[in-house]
Amino acid sequence: MNITEIRNNIDFIQFSTKDGIRLRGILSRKSTASACIIFVHGMGGTMFTPVAMTMLEKLDKKIALFSMDNRGFGDINSFVEICNGKKRRKRIGTCLERFEDCIYDLDAAISAMKRLGFKRIVLCGHSTGCQKSLFYQYKTRDKRVSAIILIAPCDDYNINKKRLGKKFRRMKNKASFLISNGLGRRIIDPDSGFSAQRMDSIINLKRPEARLFDYEGRLREFSSVKTPILALFGSKEENALRPVSKYLEILDSKSSSKRFCGLIIEGANHSFDGKAAELAKSIESWINQLLF
What we know:
Layout: E1 2-7, E2 10-16, E3 22-28, E4 35-40, H1 50-58, E5 63-68, E6 78-83, E7 86-91, H2 102-115, E8 120-126, H3 128-140, E9 145-151, H4 156-164, H5 168-180, E10 187-189, E11 194-195, H6 196-203, H7 208-211, H8 220-224, E12 229-234, H9 244-254, E13 260-265, H10 276-291
Parallel strand pairs: 4-5, 4-8, 8-9, 9-12, 12-13
Antiparallel strand pairs: 1-2, 2-3, 3-5, 6-7, 10-11
Helix pairs in contact: 1-10, 2-3, 5-6
């Protein structure tokens, strides 16, 4: 792990995953902080997403924030991969990443923060970062994770089913064909830029990414996670296929969490434009009640 100070209260951190991908993030360095939120951005996002930057500024001194780039950083990006002790470049990014590999990213980030001395770790996903955070805890049952925050956990499966319309079944069959012929990294959808395997990950209910927040389904993975969960939506969520209050009712009814809380930020959209400070304060209040 490599730490470089880039501002008085901010550290730039590089760290590597178990499968050899080098990642980076920025940490708000607060001397009194014993808890750290690890912020997981969504599709095409970066560590500098406005929601994360506002949280970094607004959270009180008891809570640090580590906003990390994951291998879904940008649409298509070049990452350093360490293989057999040698460096090489690997093209990943949102359009090419394998969703299930997010486990390596989050495990490495948690380990990095624990090495820095944080006693409590909170995973905080925004948009597709919600799927990654929840999937990580579902698969690992990591006792180092004290809580999970889900910011705008939208239904990517049904959103894309609606977006594709009559093309949905044809797209699903084409993705399956390309994957079975070793062409999973081929770009299949010019509109989104997704590779065949990433499109399959979103529109095939046999894949966990598609199932995790399929609000018309069983929410099996979500239902099995017992870690405390805070789920938040903006009342003007533009990706919602039904009222966000209904989404929160469904999550509440399916949750086996030791402590589940659902909140709606009035007037906020998917990116919480103009409402990120209110979002940060709601998160801060919940964490203070839960951990301190």
